[in-house]
Amino acid sequence: MKVAIIHDWLVTHTGAEKVLSEIVQLYPEADIFSLVDFLTLQERDDIVSGKHVQTSFIQKLPFAKKLFRNYLPLFPMAIERLDIQSYDVIISSSWAVAKGVKTKNHQIHVNYCHTPIRYAWDLYDEYTKNLGRVKKYFVQQTLHYIRQWDYRVSNRVDVFIANSYFVQKRIRCNYGRDAVVIHPPVDTTTFTPRIHKDKERFYVTVSRLVPYKRVAMIVEAFNKNGRKLVVIGSGEEQQYITAMAEDNITILGWQKNEVIVDYLQRACAFVYAAEEDFGIVPVEAMACGTPVIAYGVGGVCDSVIEYETGIFFTEQTPEALNSAVALFETCSFNTATIVSQAKKFSTEMFRKRFKALMFSTVKERSSSVCDSL
After folding, report:
1. Could you give the 3-state DSSP secondary structure of residue 254?
2. Closest by alpha carbon to 34, among 14, 50, 67, 58?
3. Mean pLDDT of the chain
4. How many CB atoms lie within 10 A of CB 16?
5. Contact 249, 223 (CB under 8 A)
6. Which whole-number Å values give the CA distances from 235 to 67, 239, 257, 362, in the listed order?
7. How far apart are CA 274 and CA 325, in angstroms?
8. What is the mean pLDDT of residues 259-276?
9. pLDDT at residue 139, as a whole number
């Protein structure tokens, strides 16, 4: 059986690429396709096992390496022009357009949906509200076209996999389709607790420093409460966050994995303020035996159990976060319980569930094809 794996674009190493990496390892003979591929050699080894990736015409457009997102109106055309007609099974890994590849009736298409296209659906108003009149008009027209196309091509998918129950609901709402939930893989062998050592009295957050992650809000809250906070990550807000941080807050910037593991192991709690489709880092923190203080909306509700593995706050404000921190400090948490919860999202669990679903899908579809002959 010939397998093709389709990913939206390959430019960085985030949660979606961790899922892709596991799928590639499950199907090492598969061919890989993407709109663009600008991975470094190290990223290529980590994500696609050093394999060649077949790309779309956008790869060769002017300034594509830095500005490929500006070609958004061309994404549907580009993904539909990828030649996958010789494959039996299509696995798309998508938060944007990968699920829109053109397939034939004899092909089986399974889509791992990290989220429906957020800027065309639930974040449409947020993406367009601050634009000037002329630019706003063209952006709105583009996103309207993308949304219509996205809904139409959802019918090319035979089976949807959602990365959380939060995304499962959005798939049902946006596409009118059911989805099986298979949570993303978390490396619970690298992220492990320290043995026979107490937690230290500081909090930690690990994140890209971009607005929707709300790290600036976390820093503002800890400016007010005076507790020690360590911020790990880089991004467009790093300079701003560094300037606003008081002396009780340490901004480390980007760090290697072993440094992140060390801080997650030692911290008394991991702080998380984003609304995410799933959220791998909170599970990594729990795998280190560290409870989570999180904004209780989105995929984090799948992984964190309130009062057992963490505390939720219900508004993305410094006041709500500080109330949660104060509550956290009155609670006690069992390390073994926290680690046990994290292991439910292990790499091994992902592989087992994904392979089982693929096997049952191919078997059912093959039987139906045979019955129709």
Report:
1. coil
2. 58
3. 93
4. 26
5. yes
6. 17, 9, 17, 42
7. 16
8. 97
9. 80
Q: Which domains does the chain have, with CATH numbers?
A: 3-185+347-372 (3.40.50), 203-345 (3.40.50.2000)
Give 372 or 355, the one with higher predicted confidence. Answer: 355
Tokens for 94? 């998508």
Q: Structure pTM?
A: 0.90
Q: Tell me the HSE value of 177 on the side-chain side, using a 13 A CA sphere.
A: 24
pLDDT score of 142: 86
CB-CB contact of 313 with 320 (8 Å): yes
Please, what is the angle between helix 165-175 and helix 133-153, to 10°?
90
Pairing between β-strand 108-113 and β-strand 89-94 as defined by DSSP bridges: parallel
> What pLDDT does 124 receive?
60
Q: Alpha-carbon distance 9 to 11, whole Å?
A: 6
112 Cα distance to chain centroid: 11
Instruction: Give the residues across from 156 on adjacent strands.
Output: none
Reported as a single tens digit per residue, the pLDDT across 154-169 is 999 999 999 999 999 9
176: left (phi over 0), alpha (psi -120 to 50) or beta: left
Distance CA 109, CA 92 (A): 7
Q: Contact 190/261 with Cβ under 8 angstroms? A: yes
User: 259, 232 in Cβ contact below 8 A?
Assistant: yes
* Assigned token pair, 135: 């630019």
Residues 6+ apart with CB under 8 A from 305: 341
According to the model, what pLDDT value does residue 369 have? Answer: 44
Task: Give whole-number Cα distances, 188 to 71, 196, 197, 287, in Å.
Answer: 38, 19, 19, 6
Chain segment 14-51, per-residue pLDDT in tens: 889 999 999 999 999 999 999 999 999 999 999 999 99
Band the pLDDT of 91: cuts 50, 70, 90: very high
